[in-house]
Design brief:
nuclease, Nucleotidyltransferase, domain 5, alpha/beta, single chain, endonuclease, about 200 residues
Length: about 200
């Protein structure tokens, strides 16, 4: 199934998506992308369906051909203070606010969003596999977040974030059990299955 370029009738339609919502460590990262109506790319799909190689290939293509793009990280302490859903939406708002051209319409992956300024929006479940701008945003959010996780991996290699990117893999949980938590861990998350709170 090929992805559609446009949802609304507005010319400047922006797609937005986030990455890292379910992670135990690191930021939640969102991107916002406005694509020109002429944009075509047979490779572009939901970033979860793409190999790392293809995401890496797509990133410069999206950034070169997009009318506008931006991304935003929201970090652990803020996730812990406002909760992950609010942090995800705040990251999307932050990415939209940095676009060099203001969108006339916003399409959002998923079913949760808060209005941004007075711009109309629609939430689209599985939007990243239906609309090119949301798919493009999912690729940028994922590649920028992965790059950040690879960077902080150098500081705490025992959690293997360059591989698991902070997701709750068995290996990541074993490392938390063995080494405790870092400043990059989300303390409001259930970090180990057998307990709800670590003694901090």
């Amino acid at each position: 199934m090929s992805l559609k370029i446009q949802f609304s009738t507005y010319n400047l339609e922006c797609g937005t998506d986030e990455a890292g919502r379910g992670c135990l460590a690191g930021p939640v990262t969102a991107a916002a992308v406005i694509l020109p109506s002429s944009f075509k790319n047979i490779l572009l799909n939901d970033s979860k369906q793409l190999s790392k190689k293809n995401r890496t290939l797509l990133k410069p293509i999206i950034e070169t051909e997009a009318t506008a793009f931006a991304f935003q990280h929201i970090f652990e302490t803020e996730i812990d203070s406002i909760n992950i859903l609010n942090a995800s939406i705040k990251a999307m708002h932050g990415a939209i606010s940095q676009l060099k051209i203001a969108p006339e319409y916003i399409i959002v992956d998923g079913n949760k969003f808060k209005p941004y300024e007075s711009i109309p929006h629609s939430t689209i479940v599985k939007g990243d596999s239906k609309y090119l701008s949301i798919a493009a945003a999912s690729v940028l959010a994922k590649t920028y977040r992965d790059a950040y996780m690879e960077k902080i991996h150098e500081e705490f290699p025992m959690y293997n974030w360059k591989q698991n990117k902070g997701y709750p893999t068995k290996e990541h949980r074993v490392a938390i059990k063995k080494y405790g938590i870092t400043k990059y861990h989300r303390k409001s998350f259930r970090l180990l299955p057998e307990q709800y709170k670590l003694n901090i």
